Amino acid sequence: MARVKICGLTRDADLRAAIDAGADAVGVISEVPVDSPREVDPAAAAELLAAVPPFVTATLVTMPESAERAVELVRMIGPDALQLHGEWTPDEIRYVRAETERKVLLAVDADDPARAEELDAVADALVLDSTDESGAGGTGETHDWERAGDLASRLTSPVVLAGGLTADTVAEAVRVADPFAVDVASGVEFTDGRKDHNAIARFVANAGREMELA
Questions:
Q1: Tens digit of pLDDT for each residue in 152-165?
Q2: Burial of 88 by CB count in 10 Å (0-12 exposed, 13-18 middle, 19+ buried)?
Q3: pTM of the model
Q4: Domain range 3-213, CATH class
Q5: What is the mean pLDDT of residues 82-92?
Q6: Are 9 and 28 within 8 A, CB to CB?
Q7: Catalytic activity, per the record (predicted)?
């Protein structure tokens, strides 16, 4: 059964819905250089993540201008884990991990396996996503799940499958790619970052049904 992260949360009600549905992790987006209805300021991010109960991983998703700023954001917001998008060197990741003492997830384009392999040794997990030219995820576009599964089998880091997943497709994605976890944002929304609570519940339930389909 794949673990589930519900990402791009902006409201208390949506956060509670994700937790009540049984999500293993929740994500709040702050300081990204792209226009996103899911972005909140650091103060709001800190308030949202402070409400996450034990045994659910509170994740800060960000694309800061430097490794030093990433560290500052972790100290300001206080997440359990940090998910970084953008171009990072292995040395920068080592610095962030050492300074924050947090697990660091790195988003990589699913069509760039060499990049995933380069970062495999320094990441706590790799998020395989469909990214734009800036390296940001959240495009809502799917990618080749079979290729993602082949890549995951070669990596030592846990792989989080992201990119265009919905409640209707996640079971098949898990069956094909066999990831450690799945990550969804736009796939469980009404519009503009507002979550569909029914879709969240279905997504979490369906992510655990891959054995029935195998």
A1: 999 999 999 999 99
A2: buried
A3: 0.92
A4: alpha beta
A5: 96
A6: yes
A7: N-(5-phospho-beta-D-ribosyl)anthranilate = 1-(2-carboxyphenylamino)-1-deoxy-D-ribulose 5-phosphate
